[in-house]
Amino acid sequence: MKLKLLFIILSLHFFSCTDKILRFSVNSGNYDRMDCPVSFDFVSQEFNNENIQLVELIGSNKRNIPFQFDKSRGKLWFLLDGLTPKESIRNFTLLKKERKTKNQHIQIRKAEGALQFSLQGQPILNYQFQMTYPPKGVDKAYGKSGFLHPVWSPGGAVLTRIQPPDHYHHYGIWGPWTKTQIDGRSVDFWNLGDKQGTVLFKTFLNETQGDIFSSFTALQEHLDFGASEENKVAIHEELEVKVWNLGLSNSAWLIDYNTKITSSLKNGILFDAYRYGGGIGFRAIKAWHKDNTSVLTSEGKDRLTADGSSAKWVMVEGETNTPAGRSGILFMGFPENKEFPEPMRVWPIDANHGRGDMFFEFCPIRHVAWKIESQKTYQLNYRMLVFDGMLTPQQAEMYWQAFANPPKVILNTIH
After folding, report:
1. What is the rounded distance in angstroms from the CA atom of residue 124 to the CA atom of residue 157?
2. HSE-up of 400 (CA within 13 Å, CB side)?
3. Biggest alpha carbon–alpha carbon distance for the chain
4. C-alpha angle 224-225-229 in degrees, rounded to nearest 5
5. What is the pLDDT of residue 318?
6. At 64, is the secondary structure helix, strand, or coil?
7. Which residues are bridge partners to 382 per DSSP?
8. CB-neighbour burial class of residue 300 (10 A; exposed 0-12, middle 13-18, buried 19+)
9. Dihedral of alpha carbons 5, 10, 13, 16, sign
10. How far is residue 58's CA from residue 322's CA, in Å, rounded to a whole number?
11. Is the peptide bond prior to 406 cis by the omega test (within 30 degrees of 0)?
12. pTM of the model
């Protein structure tokens, strides 16, 4: 994920016999920060997770801080934990010494056709990589793989729903494209019952477990059923899902959902402007309806006015059987996404015979078509905060700013 970090890169080649490798500071900037992921460039063959210790300097005291190398991107990650007020600076040192402070990892395991994420026994989410078929008697064309379900709140409430009888093609959290054109021919990857196309899991490209995050990257194929065999895969998608380790005391999960798409078709593919398609979609549980849910956008829109509008973030929440009584998901868009701030689809309160069931989607092609050129890569990045209780607009803005405008990291001395 490309984060807009501002930093000064100093050479890492001048190590001496001291145990200090480098010192750096983090400036929170114009925004309050809460449990904010932070990174800086760090590329060295000499050091690894076991022979480095990260320490925060607090006056004359030192506090060990968990961290994680992301070798594929040449980054060192850690959490700016707790509340860091705006316009404040925190100081850190990276030491060459045996590492002692580690987090309890977010565990990943494969079971029952899913890649399952959990923290100390509490489930977070499942990525379903094996085919899931609809109930007996329903057309098997509605079968699908490559989606998130269940997604749990920290209090244990399931928030996602798949295969509801009103829309058997709905699958928890997912994002197929709907009205598309390939050489003038219409192909729908969303409405599975039309049997024009689908999106399926192909293989895992990467799986990571660490102190700061656990993640996977999956290859998903957008299949065009009306194409010749050599052009059947209309889009290759790399889906990266990253779960940040905020611990159990925060009553929140922080999840990144990043997708890269590439088409090898000679003439590419056109995503027509339409109210559904792509981005990130969310079908909520059956128990959520017009009388016990709410929507709030960064622009102050609610369930009645959000549909078709655009926003930086959207909070969807409702009643659950958790101790807090309510749970929700804050969906955050990234400034470099197509059509940011992104338009959305929110079902009206009379949806599904007046029940007002909950559906939300960031939909970059809601108002403007998008031409995907052959062999070019396009990316959409999203972050979700899954929470129990209530989240204020000020807190939502704080989490979005951490995603869109991370703190400034300044590497200031190397020994």
Report:
1. 10
2. 22
3. 73
4. 85
5. 98
6. strand
7. 257, 333
8. exposed
9. negative
10. 37
11. no
12. 0.93
Average pLDDT, the chain: 92
CA dist 308 → 74, 326, 360, 384 (Å): 39, 26, 11, 20
Each residue of 284-340: pLDDT tens digit?
999 999 999 999 999 999 999 999 999 999 999 999 999 999 999 999 999 999 999
Structure tokens at 400: 């979005």
Whether the upstream peptide bond of residue 150 has omega within 30° of 0, thus cis, is yes
Q: Copy the structure tokens of residue 5.
A: 């970090």
Block residue for tokens 């010494």: 97
Token pair listed for 364: 């970059």
Closest CA to 237 of 215, 257, 260: 260
DSSP assignment string, 330-366: EEEE-TTSTTSSEEEEE--TTTTTTT---EEEE-TTS
Q: Give the DSSP H/E element, type plus range, for residue 203.
A: strand 197-208
Token code pair at residue 94: 């990276």
Residue with tokens 């800086």: 40
CA dihedral 246, 247, 253, 255 (to 10 degrees): 50
pLDDT digits (tens, 9 = 90+) for 87-132: 999 999 999 887 666 678 999 999 999 999 999 999 999 999 999 9
- Supply the pLDDT for residue 412: 77
